[in-house]
TrEMBL record:
Coiled coil: none annotated. The gene is Mars. It holds the Pfam family tRNA-synt_1g. Keywords: Aminoacyl-tRNA synthetase, ATP-binding, Ligase, Nucleotide-binding, Protein biosynthesis. Gene3D superfamilies: 2.170.220.10, HUPs. SUPFAM superfamilies: Methionyl-tRNA synthetase (MetRS), Zn-domain, Nucleotidylyl transferase. The keyword Cytoplasm does not apply. This is Methionine--tRNA ligase, cytoplasmic. It catalyses: tRNA(Met) + L-methionine + ATP = L-methionyl-tRNA(Met) + AMP + diphosphate.
Amino acid sequence: IAAAVEIWARGPAALPPPWEPRTPVLPVEGERNVLVTSALPYVNNVPHLGNIIGCVLSADTFARYCRLRRWNTLFVCGTDEYGTATETRALQEGLSPQELCDRYHALHADIYTWFRISFDHFGRTTTPQQTRIAQDIFQRLLARGFLLQDTLEQLRCESCGRYLADRFVEGTCPFCGYAEARGDQCDKCGKLINAVELQNPQCKLCHGTPVVTPTQHLFLDLPKLEGRLEAWLERTWAAGEWTANARHITRTWLRDGLKPRCITRDLTWGTPVPLDGFRDKVFYVWFDAPIGYLSITANYTDQWERWWKNPQQ
């Protein structure tokens, strides 16, 4: 505090010169290296103030603070572009999913530029780097025995001639009776839902009644990871860096026991699954999208692993 008072009395001339980032910004031995991300905004709509205040503005404020502290700081973000919500919006607007993503990515980028959000790089998830890194992670999981293959009963709309992904079907929640539950979760009670559990299901595309049909899918074997996850959580909870809400939600998942989670979908818009027998499917967006943080960094610099695989720095 005394030093701050002294510098304040001496005026701006006493301040150190502004931090000038190197290009590209990479971790530096012996310096404080900070990687900042904000939640990837979904690409199928126009950002509003709530989106910006909810995650982008707070991350920008922190990134600016880090730079003022002269810490070596990289701030990345980008649009999340795969998933059924993109397909749904593209159908509504009469565009292909890629055309829709191109339009809204440019719109997002312009808005954040207008607000002077200080991203070092604002990218997107529909890139060759995203495909390469997501498929590499998948192959590593497969080689280590963390994937299962099983038959999944899925809703199929015979009128549309397609299996219905989670967001292409709505119905009544089997837990609380909410009449507009989605095929992946209920927005009223928060419960995760398997689409075939919905009562009175309806295809969102043609409003017809889908039928239950078996199809093969790949699952992440979460029960095999449960013991290691619990041990890691105990260590990180002890460090005190989790919010009370985050702890409560995580404990609830563990209390109920982790279940295998399906990571593939019968869609065409997404990262292709590189495995015989599943090449007509894509990865579920919640397997694929978090990898966007890595791939966006990889599109910024080919030395991206120095940020993401370098805990000592």
